[in-house]
Design goal:
CATH topology: Alpha/beta knot
Radius of gyration: 16 Å
Strand content: 15-25%
Order of helices and strands: HEHEHHEHEEEHEH
Number of domains: 1
Number of helices: 7
CATH superfamily: SPOUT methyltransferase, trefoil knot domain
Shape: globular
CATH class: Alpha Beta
Length: about 180
């Protein structure tokens, strides 16, 4: 049997150490995410993979929020974030800063996640959409690539926070 490790044995960074640490060249763009629980989960996942920043767009609620904190467990204090009223102007700025724009969405001619090979010398903006409507069509149209998580069940999609975890794990594992 294996003994569970105590939190004190995990050698995690403090919030200040996290802020100073190097980050992967990845940002999350949350396009009109309605659930604060999903937003909090995105912060916690972004912390785990040490990504650059989260952009909260449209109806996506920014911290501080008890509901976000409940899922993020303080990661909202470590991960850099910014609120943007609209997604499209942000997408334009990210492109100008050299980010490859990736919609995580089911589209015609999309790339299956396992077939996507990120390049270590590129910066990526991963755009995740609303729990019901997905990524706005105009945002999908502005992206360089659309990634799809293959699914074999009866449902049409995964919860957005689960999708964030799956996509980040896959891309980060390929980059490292």
């Amino acid at each position: 049997m294996s003994r569970k490790l105590l939190n004190s044995e995990l050698s995690r960074l403090s919030v200040e150490e996290f802020k100073q640490a190097g980050k992967l060249p990845l940002v999350l763009v949350l396009d009109n995410i309605r659930s604060q629980h999903n937003i909090g989960a995105a912060f916690r996942t972004a912390d785990a993979f040490r990504i650059e920043k989260i952009y909260l767009c449209g109806i996506s609620s920014p911290p501080p929020s008890a509901e976000i904190h409940k899922a993020a467990l303080g990661a909202e204090d470590a991960v850099a974030w910014r609120y943007e009223k609209e997604t499209m102007p942000l997408i334009t700025r990210l492109r100008e800063k050299g980010y490859t724009l990736i919609a995580v969405e089911q589209v015609e001619h999309g790339v299956l996640l396992h077939n996507f090979q990120p390049q270590k010398d590129k910066k990526y903006a991963l755009i995740f959409g609303n729990e019901v409507k997905g990524v706005q069509q105009q945002v999908v149209d502005a992206c360089d690539i659309s990634l799809e998580i293959p699914q074999q069940g009866t449902k049409h999609s995964l919860n957005v926070s689960v999708s964030i975890g799956v996509v980040l794990w896959d891309i980060v594992s390929k980059l490292r």
